[in-house]
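ugh ok fine here u go
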Amino acid sequence: MLLPYIRNLKRLGFDATLRQVDGPQYYERVRRFDYDMVVDVFAQSLSPGAEQVGFWGSSAADQVGNRNTIGIKNTAIDTVIDQLGKAKNRDEIVLYAQVLDRLLRAGHYLVPLYGKSATNVAYWDQYRHTEKLPSNAIGIDYWWTDKEAEARVNQYLKQ
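structure:
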């Protein structure tokens, strides 16, 4: 995924290289903001709130070990995060989360690499799950084994 990205950056005139480091060095470099570009994940809950300061807030931009790996310092974003943390109901949470989303997109702070909103799972035809699964997970906790189907799979594997 990264190599074609780097190749295209070079075609645009950027001197881009990929540097692979071991786990401890990677985490220390990220913790101290010692990089030009980094792959990161910004996992979110379905009810964002005051924790957004750690991801996008100006106060977190220079704090060693914080989650604002982008280094965003934007007073408009800080104001929206503050309002999001003070939201009194679900409608306000949705409103301020949408405004925050628009501000982050408008700032062009990151290059999305994984644009898929679903997860593919391959499994033997012995598992069952409810028709409706959680919207934010695969829901494996809600799966069960169909004993008859399991016996068919086991018989097949013995061949």
